[in-house]
Design brief:
Length: 346
C-alpha cells in the first residue's frame, strides 16, 4: 500500500500540469530542533544611502518626495518599455521572437526603511493592498497591457538588493509562462466540471486540514499538496474573485491580516527575516472574461533547515522534475505550530 508519508512518490500540480517528486524516507528522523540564534540586527528607520527612502536621490536626477504612506514610481531600470516597435521574427518555427511592450513600477510599502510586511500594522498593509488594486486597474487599462504581475523579492538570498519594504510590478503585453500555464489548467478544469479549480481545491484542503497553516474569515494559507519549496505557501480566498480589485473592504483587511500572519510565522521559523519571492496570480487584463481564474498569492521561500541552509534547484530538478524531502504536510505542521507574535516583539 502506497503511504505518502513513507514511500517515494510523485505529486501532480493541477495548476501547472507538472509533477514533483517527494522522498519522505530521506527525512525519517524527527526534527532535530536546532537552536537558532535570533537575528536581532535591526535596520535604521531611515538610510541616507537608500534610493527608496523619502527625500533621497534615485537614478538620474530623480528625487523621492517626503512620502508618508505608500509610494509608487516607474522603475528607473525598467525591463520592459512601451516605446518598442511592433515586430516579429520566425525562422522555421524554431528561431522565433516578437516585440514585447510593458511597464515596470516600484511600490514602496512604507517610508520606514526598517519594516517588513511582518512588522507593518495590518491597516498599513491594507493601504498597500488598495494600491495593488489601483495599479492592477490602471496598468491593466493600458491598451497594450494584457497581464499585470505584482511580486516581492525579499532578502539578499532572493537577489533583493535593497531591504527597504517594496515590491515590483511588471505589466506586459503577453501573459508570462506561469500564469499562462495556470490559466490553461483553470480553463480546462472549468470546462470539464463547470466549477472553479481553486474553489474546489480549497474545499478539499479545509476538509482535510493537514496542510492548512492559518486562516481567517475570508482567506486560508496552506502548503499546497504539490509544493516544490520546503515552506512554500499559497493564500487562497473563500470567495471566488478573479483579481485583487474585486476584494471587498472586509476582504482586503482579512488579506492584510493573513499576509502579516504568514510572514510573521516565516520570520519565527528560523528567527530571521525570512527571504522569499511572493506574488499574485489573477485574471489577465486582455479584455477576456476569464471566469475560471481565482485570485491567489504564492510564497516561494528558499530556506530549508536554518537561516543559512537553502534549497537549490539543481541536477535532476533542472534536468528532470523538482524534488523535495520534507513533506508538505510536515512543513505545514511546523508552520502551524509557530507563534504569531514576532520574535523581535518577544
Ligand atoms: Zn530605505
Ligand atoms: Zn474560485
Ligand atoms: Zn498561481
Amino acid at each position: 500500500m502506497l503511504d505518502l508519508n513513507e514511500h517515494s512518490h510523485r505529486r501532480f500540480n493541477p495548476l501547472t500540469g507538472e509533477w514533483i517528486i517527494v522522498s519522505p524516507h530521506r527525512t525519517k528522523r524527527p526534527w532535530q530542533g536546532q537552536t537558532e540564534e535570533a537575528s536581532r540586527d535591526t535596520l535604521p528607520d531611515y538610510d541616507p544611502d537608500c534610493y527608496l527612502c523619502p527625500t533621497n536621490h534615485r537614478a538620474g536626477d530623480k528625487v523621492n518626495p517626503a512620502y508618508t504612506g505608500v509610494y509608487v514610481f516607474d522603475n528607473d531600470f525598467a525591463a520592459l518599455r512601451l516605446d518598442v516597435p511592433e515586430g516579429r521574427q520566425n525562422i522555421g518555427d524554431l528561431i522565433v521572437a516578437e516585440s514585447e511592450r510593458g511597464l515596470c513600477r516600484v511600490v514602496c510599502f512604507s517610508p520606514n526603511h526598517s519594516l517588513t510586511l511582518s512588522r507593518m500594522k495590518t491597516g498599513d498593509i491594507k493601504s498597500v493592498i488598495d494600491e495593488w488594486a489601483n495599479q492592477y486597474i490602471e496598468l491593466g487599462g493600458e491598451a497594450f497591457i494584457n497581464h499585470v504581475q505584482i511580486f516581492e523579492n525579499r532578502g539578499e538570498m532572493m537577489g533583493a538588493s535593497n531591504p527597504h519594504p517594496h515590491c515590483q510590478i511588471w505589466a506586459s503585453e503577453s501573459i508570462p509562462n506561469e500564469p499562462a500555464k495556470e490559466l490553461r489548467s483553470q480553463n480546462d478544469y472549468h470546462d470539464k466540471r463547470g466549477r472553479c479549480l481553486l474553489c474546489d481545491y480549497l474545499k478539499l484542503e479545509k476538509a482535510g486540514g493537514e496542510r492548512i497553516v492559518c486562516e481567517n474569515e475570508y482567506f486560508a494559507a496552506l502548503v499546497p499538496f504539490w509544493a516544490v519549496y520546503p515552506f512554500e505557501v499559497m493564500i487562497v480566498g473563500r470567495e471566488h474573485h478573479g483579481s485583487i480589485d474585486e476584494l471587498s473592504e472586509q476582504e482586503r483587511m482579512a488579506f492584510a491580516e493573513i499576509l502579516k500572519r504568514v510572514t510573521t510565522r516565516y520570520d519565527n521559523l528560523f528567527l530571521t527575516p525570512f527571504p522569499y519571492s511572493m506574488g499574485f496570480h489573477q485574471k489577465p487584463t486582455d479584455g477576456g472574461g476569464h471566469d475560471s481564474v481565482h485570485f491567489h498569492a504564492h510564497f516561494y521561500p528558499p530556506l530549508l533547515r536554518s537561516a543559512t541552509v537553502r534549497k537549490f534547484l539543481v541536477g535532476f530538478e533542472i534536468l528532470g522534475s523538482p524534488q523535495r524531502d520534507i513533506t508538505p504536510e510536515s512543513a505545514a505542521a511546523r508552520l502551524r505550530n509557530l507563534s504569531e507574535i514576532h520574535y523581535l516583539d518577544n
